[in-house]
Amino acid sequence: MAKQALILIDIQNDYFPQGKWPLVGVEAAADKARQLLQAFRQAGDAVIHVRHEFTADDAPFFTPGSEGAHLHPKVLNENDEPVVLKHFVNAFRQTNLREVLEQRSITDLVVVGSMSHMCIDAVVRAAADYGYTVTVIHDACATRDLEFNGKTVAAAQVHEAYMASLAFAYASVVSADEFLKA
Fold this sequence. Notes:
GO terms for molecular function: hydrolase activity. The chain is of the alpha/beta class.
């Protein structure tokens, strides 16, 4: 029987409006993540938080020990919910995430968080490569405008492109409402 876990990626203070690296739509995405978090807790399913800290004090955001690097109050972990600390984009790289999943016999991952084009993309692709069945809740993820070749790419376009890419071969990509109704 499949056993699932909710993986909350980098829903941290620096990504919110008063933080060092605010994302477009982060409040709405965090609200959806909170809905999923409550549903997983009520069902008794596993919940794993992932938190990023850069290793240098001059990092652009998520500086070690800073308030900005803390989990956002909307999705704080409870006592029995592990928090995986990472220092790279991919939450599996040099962390105990895989061990935490294996200890709980997890086969299916439900992924939410930030940023769509970086840490969400990396963890979903790695998880699929490790053999996990992955679902991404697209409206519980956020990103920001990017610049490429002198042009601004709007956050909505960045998000849509990455969700479309992940949906092609790595994950089921659905809304929070779709997931919660299923």
